[in-house]
């Protein structure tokens, strides 16, 4: 249950991303700067944290030992995640993007067979947790309901441009996160892992920033400031909280699915934030029903996680009695 609370807190700080990305897009800021500036600003904060905890040397050793894997999975987990999210900000309000982003809950579960778990020296391929998939499918229904009003008012072309990149991001984020947990094997803490992934993804962000400078020039002072806020709130605080929560339950696909499902609460935080800060109107009734369905799915995930934890405790007690 503690991991779910961490996940919800992460969702609160992640919500800043969708609100400010929409704000920057409304002001004419380029998505290329919005995406790259976030990671440029994350770097010094994470570096100070890791250096103060004397964690640089083990991180450096890990990255030197497996540079290809760090570059690959950091690109997947950070670049293919965040660049699409900033790109689609021009196609709709933040609540719509964050609502579509909840597909990552189902995507994370479907990725389970790509990973193996070692038990008593034997490697066992992970299975898709069926109950968790069914619960996440409820959340997916809510996501589809959120899209109904938008689908009625825009062309198929615009709708696809506004949703397909988010689907790519929805698979990329859990895949990159889980693969890096696998690569690190518990040898690094969350701060080290996030810093390492930020450093490994820098080449891509530098290329995007360079292209932005050539095509649209320098970002405005307001875009720089808002990107700084995104970098601190979403890039550092939310990412670290979420990675801590997933790292704690990485061996249990059911609990991992529940933690990843906490991101469904983002859409609530985004709706409230956009209404207060940007004057965005309340979503249509159908979309509100969809949001309600997402919340119900999240509550079901929490309940299922509590049951899993109780079963785990009972098994441990039984094993202790047998010994």
List keywords for this structure.
mainly alpha, two-stranded antiparallel sheet, 13 helices, 2 strands
Describe it.
It is a single chain. With 323 residues, this protein is mainly α. The chain has one domain. Helix content is 80%, strand content 2%. The chain has a two-stranded antiparallel ribbon. Helix 1 packs antiparallel against helix 10 (221-248), helix 1 runs parallel beside helix 12 (266-277) and helix 7 packs antiparallel against helix 13. It is globular and about 65 Å long. It starts with a helix and ends with a helix. InterPro entries: EmrE. The chain crosses the membrane at residues 31-50, 70-89, 95-116, 128-148, 154-173, 194-218, 224-245, 257-280, 286-308. Keywords: Membrane, Transmembrane, Transmembrane helix.
| Average pLDDT number | 82
Instruction: Please give the count of helices.
Output: 13
Number of domains: 1
Global outline: globular
Indicate the low-confidence ranges by residue numbers: none
Please provide the ordered H/E string of secondary-structure elements.
HHHHHHEEHHHHHHH
Transmembrane segments: 31-50, 70-89, 95-116, 128-148, 154-173, 194-218, 224-245, 257-280, 286-308
InterPro entries: EmrE (IPR032713)
Protein name: Multidrug resistance efflux transporter family protein
Keywords: Membrane, Transmembrane, Transmembrane helix
